[in-house]
Structures are given as C-alpha cells and as structure tokens.
Amino acid sequence: MSGTFTKSMARNVFYGGTVFFILLFLALTFDSMQALPKRDNRQALTEQVAHGKKLWETNNCIGCHTLLGEGAYFAPELGNVYVRRGPEFIKAWIKAQPTGTPGRRQMPQFHFSDEELDALVAFLKYSSEIDTNDWPPNVEG
Amino acid sequence: MQYKSQAVAKPYFIAAIALFVGQILFGLIMGLQYVVGDFLFPAIPFNVARMVHTNLLIVWLLFGFMGGAYYLIPEETETELYSPKLALALFWIFLVAGALTIVGYLAVPYATLAEFTGNDILETMGREFLEQPLITKVGIVVVALAFLFNISMTVLKGRKTAISLVLLMGLWGLAVMFLFSFYNPSNLVLDKFYWWWVVHLWVEGVWELILGALLAFVLIKVTGVDREVIEKWLYVIITLTLVTGIIGTGHHYFWIGTPGYWQWWGSIFSALEPIPFFAMTVFAFNMVNRRRREHPNKAATLWALGTGVMAFLGAGVWGFLHTLAPVNYYTHGTQITAAHGHMAFYGAYAMVVLCIISYAMPVLRGRAANSDKSQVLEMWSFWLMTVSMVFITLFLTAAGILQVWLQRFSDTPQAFMQVQDQVSLFYWMREWAGVVFLIGLIAYIASFFVKGEQEPAAA
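Above: the input entities. Below: the structure tokens describing the complete assembly.
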C-alpha cells in the first residue's frame, strides 16, 4: 500500500473487477441454463410433482431435513430417501408420526390425505433422479 | 452527536439487541432438542424453532444495518437525514411486521400460515431462510425501498465519501438480490440455483460491503487515521470480496443438479474467499496500531478488532475447511456446515453490528464513551460471547467430523439417527457453550445500565 497506489486507482480496480466478474458469472449462468435440461430431470416434472413440492414447502420440511444437502441438519437427508426406503415405507412413516418415544427427536403429524402422500412421494422420486454428480456418497445420505 | 437526525438510529439499535436475545433463546431451545428430542414437542417443533432462530438473526442484523446507516450517513455526508420522520415510521412498520411474522410462526401451523398469507397467489414460502409469508416479503421490499430512498436522497444532497458510497452499494445490492426470493419454480434445480442468488450473494457478497463500510467508519473515528488511507483499504477489501465471492457462488453448485464444471470454478474462487477477510483483519490491526488519538471508547475498538479476526476465522478458515469439492462431497449438509455458519455469522455480521452499536450508542446517549466500569463489563461480554462461540464451533466441528466418518466415509455407513446418537456428547457440550453465550449476552445488556464516571461528550 505504498504512495503510488492511490485511492482512485483502488476504486477503479474495484469497479472494473466487479463488472468483469459479474459478467463472467452471468456467462456461466447462461451456460448452466443450457446444460440443465439434460441434468435436472425436468421431463419428470408433472403436476403431481409440483403439488408435492408445494406440500414440501408449506409444511416447512426443510426446517429439519436436508434436500440435496441443503436445509437443516436435524433429520435425515431426503434427496435420496426414495432410493433408500421406497414409496410405501415413506408413506407409512409419515402417517405414523410422531413416534412419541420419550427423549427421541419427534416429527409432527401433518394429516396428509392419500393423494397428498402420493404427491410427496412423487416429488421425492423426482428429486432422487436429478443428476447430482453422484452425491451423496452412499445411500445413507 | 453532530447531527440531530442521527438520533433515529437509537430505536433501531435497541430493537436489534432485543431480537438478538430472542434469537439466542430459540437457539438454546434447538440445541436442547438435538439431545432431548421431545423437548417442547409438539408446542415448538424443531423446524419452527429453527425458523424463528434464523429469521430473528436476519431481522436483527437488518435492524443493525439500518440503524448503522442512519447513524453513519449524516456524519459522512455532513448533512441531516433527508427524512427522519420516514426513518421512524419505517422502524415501527418493520418492527410490527417482523413481530407479527414471528408470532405467526409460533401460533399457527406453517401450512395454515401459508394458506392465510397469500402463498397460493405466489408460492415463495418453505425455503430455508426465506420462510417469510408473501406479505412479509412484500413488506420487506417496501421498507427496504423507502429506507434506500431516504438514505440515497441524503447522500445525493451531501458530501459523497467512499464509505457512504460503498455502504449504499451494499444496501442497494441487498434489496436487489432479495427480489430473487420471489422466484420459486417447480423445477427444484432452478429453485435452488437462484435461491443462492439471495443467500450467497447476500452473505458472501453485498453484505460484506456493508460490513466493510461500517468497520471503516468506526476505525476512522476511533483511530483518527487519515481517511484517504482507510478508504483505499476499503476499496481493496471489497474488490477482493467481489472478485472471489461472485464466482465463489459456485461452491454451492457442486451437488444440486448443476454442471460439473462448477466444482472447478467454485473450488478455486471460494478457496480465495478467505483473502478479503484476512485483509480486513490486517486492516483493522494496522489502523489501530497507527492510531493518532486515544479514543476513550476502548470497547468499540475491541469489537472492531474482534470482528476482523472472527470473520476471518469463521467465514475464511471454517469456510475454506469444506469448500473444495472433493472435501465438500463428504461434508456437504453436515454439522461442519452448521459450525461454519455459526462462527461466520457471529464474526462477520453480529460483531460488526455490535461494533457500530458500541461506538454509536454512547454518543446517542450524550457522551463520547461509557464509564470505565460499563466498558469493562462490555468487554467481559465480548470475551464471553466470542470464546463461547469459538467453542460452539469447535464442538460442532467435532460432531461433524465424526458424522462424516461414520455416515459418509465408512465402508459400512450407518444411518443418520444412529450416527446422531453417537455424537450426542458434542451436542451437549455445544449446548453448555450456548448457555455461556447467553450469560455473555446478559452481561452485554447489563453494561448499558452501568453508571459511573463518564467521559464528557465530544464535539
């Protein structure tokens, strides 16, 4: 930070550098958007899946669970739960909550109809088929 | 106080501290639920407690940023605020809206809240940190725009310093990036991709501009070092921040369905993200060492140095720890992430808000600095909160390493809950460290009520 490097030079480097990297980021974003159709399983996006995602959101599932590793770390990863447990187990599990076992972490009872349970399972199936570069490392999530 | 409109900062600071207390109380509830799973169930399920914990954090930091801006801008621009009345009105609107949202989280099931607050019109709820009902989100935008109007008009009519311009860029960036919270497509990958444009480009982007500006302002005040030097540093730091941080967004694009090349972009650029934080630490210490005056407010100086160090450790070192893609493959979404999140938010943002409060509050109360007795207690609170946060981070890191080992790295991986049971000792220790943090916070609040010999008001 010698005397030759002035504040106005620092300011110009800031504006130039920021603009350059914003443009680079936008270019990478554009390229990602072109690549996504082959990776994000959008062909499986049915109305049922969309309904499942809405149920996932309006019951704040992310407040305890992770989905593709993002969310809270209080309860198991669900991005691959369809693979780990299968549809029937998932539905039976949700219906059986809370377990009421003293001292154990509890999941609330959400009173889903059968149709809603199917939508949630469809959403979790869709999520499990997204190309995540082979994450998670194993089926336990 | 040089400008009487700076006084509007005071209620913002008081609200920030009050909400901070709420955040910590809910943190302790969650910490206990980690080991006593049915604690307060079903009255306050974990997901509700977490939503309150993280949303209160965001809201109290926003109160702190806004209060900081209202205090700093008149002094930097050498003119009164454009409209102190608007600032005060926005304070009450934001406080009431925030309080109603929190009450909504606690009083009714989340699905009911969604139903009655217009989530069917535009589905934005139920995503981490962006859980707010649609009406709250719209309210945030309205308050933010009115706030920015007020601040921008003030800057326009006054002196334009680098500090005020950087602060303004940070605040505008905050408001603009928040608009992406309204975009929530059914396509999960797109949802997640742009969700990070709010979350990452806030905390590892524009918020760092706010952090830098607040820190630079306090350093000018407490050290008396030449503005030219401090503002040059500020530009260098925020350049490093955005050059590394914008492409650094890529470290969130490893495993969510995005192309594999992000593993390279994200790893390389986010590996450089500690550099601006390191520069900030060097900057703070350098300026204090070169000080031209002995400011009576020692506590504010301590917070200024502390935020540099803790931001570097929490955001820089603990971020680097798990940011390289081959490492992140195993650590993604484990307690390692939680450890990093805790120290980074405390070090970078909680501490800088406490720093500006520490500097400004005595002035707002008509004195250059608090009494020695009060400052000693404030410094105790600094050490109690900071050291306990270091321990919270260390315990969560230990839990995270074990979790990775047992659940992810092993040849015979174990199930999530089976692993959680085995690391519960560390969760217990984290909870006790959290209790110490609360004691520190109580000491902090008590320091505002300690009397004693006071420094006379400075010009």
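Note for the figure: Chain A touches chain B through 73 residues (CB under 8 Å).
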